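Sequence in, structure out.
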Amino acid sequence: MGTPKTILCTLATLGLAAAAGGAWLVWGGLYNVSATEQHTQPVYSLLETAMRQSVRLRARGIEPPALGAEAQVVHGAACYREKCVQCHGAPGVAQGDIGKSMQPLPGPLVDARQRWNARELYWVTKNGIKMSGMPAWEYRLSDQDLWALVAFLERLPDMTPQQYAQASAPMMPSGQGAPGGPACGPGPRAAGGAQDSVRRGQRALAQYACNACHTIPGTTGSFPQVGPPLAGMARRATIGGKLANTPDNMVQWLRHTRTVDPLTAMPEMGVTEQDARDIAAYLATLD
């Protein structure tokens, strides 16, 4: 048996070798990140296990409401048609080009209830999964929509292609089968204190893709230079060179950018009133 010193030296050597190998793998560009190449099975299994355990840990305190009413399932089917089919497909319906071209592949959800319980399905749909292509729908769907989707997913394994087509058919308010407006969308958010608003605003910045163009303190990214950096936003006299820098004007700018400045390259991102106020609260802390 080796001495403690020998054991420590051996472990240190192995650790250094592993670190050197990892650095070589990363900086040498050896791992193929192409979406036309599958992950190796060990990498896939490791990521899948980490994802499952993370979801189970965070979803365990969620209390599902009553699920399964026919109207709820039909509403969930409409939301599924609008938001989910493009990646996951449905009975008798293939995934769209986006879903078929992703890696890892977003598989069909006809077996979702066998792998996830209701609270876990809700958590995944609401929060998404990092680095998987699964988006977070919290800022796009109301809580009612999210639970309706869960109810639909629990019914989906029992549906034939014909039943799915009937359940998900676009309907006018009159109930006559015809293309109608969006079936689902963001809902109201409960207003909290000032600190809650700041915290929500920091999170909303990423969900509305603000950090895709702007370098923003408190958000992670690759330091983009498309739009101006937002450090020191609280000290600036104007917003976009057009409006005085006040909370209400920031909300107006975030929600109606092209109305304020028709010549700006900044697009309107569909920010809700509450989310805009939360973002304004966070930006006001950047001094």
